């Protein structure tokens, strides 16, 4: 009897072929992918039916149809960022400039000189041009690149610690948590380093570092508080003092800068100054680590720059090969670095790097773009004063003046993300790329 009931329940399962035939016609995905997805979705429905749950065929087909729609929408594709947040992590962080994107396309669709020396025809060095250009840009002895900033920290720690000399000194006020719940102590543990905490959350003195140094100390690590800030009764040693201390004890001083601002942010917009790699190196930091896809405005990458002997030691670490970037990341970052050097020669070319251009937008330009946007949407709207933010775990104290088109109803535009305040949709034209505004 039980088996008969189970068979009756299973009769509610739709035909895979018929359902895939219908859904494939409504989808932009290959039929084989739709069919495979349907089969995977049917498994939990089958288990529920076998457990005695009563489900109709319509309920099952509706559930699978909704799941396929959600699955198809998760495919990476362009979206409209009307939030006013420049480096929106959920929306892909910094957009690439057209010149860099075209260079990636050219390299990706052709063979390239990834590890060939075009002058000799012999085997070349991967990323040689980029490393040299980066070192010149940030005024470092040497530089190298891995696939993200967290990897650059793990790699650096693995390369600079040794058996019996694996202690890494970090201020308690810098034990930050980055995106996804990853914390600096966890990263240190993963690398094999032993964390030595010094100071208090709000204050760390030079003597705290000095008292923590032993013959087991591998390095002193500074971590820039890029996604939060301390205020009030706070204090920390000057970098020059910390460098003198590290030099006296012959241990490296390393800083994880995170955000990677290469220009004076406070000169681009009325926001806080973000430490630049070249500034920190000039103050005594011997290695700086920073991201490629935040304030730098390039692809996801982790950049390591500083003392040549330390960079070379890092590149000899076996883990280096596991986190090296591919030709597309190298090309994108290479072209963004060239853009920065072009801007250094001619500051009017700031438009080459979209993040910099968006930061530098004048109130007049924003109002003109907002008025143009207002004409293109059918919903009743008004232009209002608002604020923007850099986002991406950078400059937590800073919001800057902006304008937005405010409307009660979200415009019927595909994949448009707005900022909702008081049940009103705000569309900030600052973060809408030119083709998107059209």
Tally the structural domains: 3
- CATH homologous superfamily annotation of the largest domain: Type I PLP-dependent aspartate aminotransferase-like (Major domain)
Biggest sheet, spatial arrangement of strands: 2-8-7-6-5-3-4
Pairing-aware structural class of the strands and helices?
Answer: alpha/beta
The share of residues in extended strands comes to 5-15%
Query: Shape from CA axes?
Result: globular
Strand segment count: 13
User: What is the share of helical residues?
Assistant: 40-55%
| Low-pLDDT windows of residues | 1-5
CATH class designation of the largest domain: Alpha Beta
The oligomerization state is: single chain
- Radius of gyration equals 26 Å
Query: CATH topology of the largest domain, anyone?
Result: Aspartate Aminotransferase, domain 2
At CATH's second level, what is the architecture of the largest domain?
A: 3-Layer(aba) Sandwich
Explain this structure.
This protein is α/β, with parallel strands linked by helices and 438 residues long. The protein folds into three domains: 2-73, no CATH class; 80-91 and 356-437, Aspartate Aminotransferase, domain 1 (Alpha-Beta Complex), CATH 3.90.1150; 98-351, Type I PLP-dependent aspartate aminotransferase-like (Major domain) (Aspartate Aminotransferase, domain 2, 3-Layer(aba) Sandwich). It contains 18 helices and 13 strands. It has helices at residues 2-10, 16-26, 31-50, 57-73, 98-108, 128-137, 149-160, 184-191, 206-212, 239-248, 265-268, 277-282, 308-316, 319-322, 327-345, 354-359, 363-376, 434-437, and strands at residues 80-81, 142-146, 167-171, 194-198, 217-223, 253-258, 287-291, 302-306, 382-388, 400-407, 416-417, 419-421, 424-427. The strands form three sheets. A seven-stranded mixed beta sheet has the order 2-8-7-6-5-3-4, sandwiched between helices. The chain has a four-stranded antiparallel beta sheet with strand order 9-10-13-12, with helices on one face. Strand 5 (217-223), helix 10 and strand 6 (253-258) form a beta-alpha-beta unit. Helix 7 (149-160) crosses helix 8 and helix 7 (149-160) crosses helix 13 (308-316). The longest helix has 20 residues, at 31-50. The radius of gyration is 26 Å and the shape is globular. Mean pLDDT is 91; it is low at 1-5.
